[in-house]
Amino acid sequence: MAERKDEPQTPADEKPTESSSAEAPATEAMAPKGEGPHPAPNVEERIEGVQGWMAEMERKQERMTRFGGAAVLLAVLAAGGALALGIVNQQNSASKDDLEDVENRLDEIQTVVKNATEKQLKSVNESVSAMDQRISALDAQLKQNAKTIATLQSQVEAATAAAGAVGGAGAATGAGAFGGGAGANSVGGAKP
């Protein structure tokens, strides 16, 4: 096979000339030990490289063909399945009479649910009204109890004041109910 003109040639591809042989000793001195100048590949190696490349391309093409065939097969199967489902659904589709029956049943159910809901709301409203009445009665009783407590407290305060007045008069004479001595409520007499 001939060389391709669009591939750049590397120094290893070039044939040694007299000028490159003069540079070879200098290049060999610069190169690390153990590595020598690469020999120029021959035509057989190039052909083997191209054949390997072609084999790799053929494998990729074969793989792409297999995937493409599988995708086409899958698409055909999906279309066939969709067609079969369409035919089955058409045979099982509901008629206009069936739809009207369903609509009538739905209307009946809506009426029943509406009536039941109204009855429940009415009973809930009655319960709420009864609770409001109970709360009002309890509130009135609470106010009455507060008035009774206030009346009793005022009576207790009046009785305490009357008892204090009686005790204060007795204390002035020394015969008070809470102890004696110069109007004080202590046993020892006057305040220190």
Describe this structure in words.
This protein is an all-alpha fold and 192 residues long. The protein is 73% helix and 0% strand. The chain contains 3 helices and no strands. The protein has helices at residues 18-30, 43-91, 96-173. Mean pLDDT is 76; it is low at 1-5, 10-29, 171-177 and 179-192.
Sheet of most strands? none
Order of helices and strands: HHH
Helix content: over 70%
**How much of the residues is beta strand, in percent?**
under 5%
Query: What is the average of the pLDDT values?
Result: 76
Span of the ends, CA to CA: 138 Å
Cα shape = elongated
Cα-atom radius of gyration? 59 Å
**Count of DSSP-assigned helices:** 3
Topology of helices and strands:
Elements lengths: L17 H13 L12 H49 L4 H78 L19
Core attributes:
73% helix, mainly alpha, disordered N terminus, 3 helices, disordered C terminus
Provide a brief overview of the structure.
This protein is mainly alpha-helical. Helix content is 73%, strand content 0%.
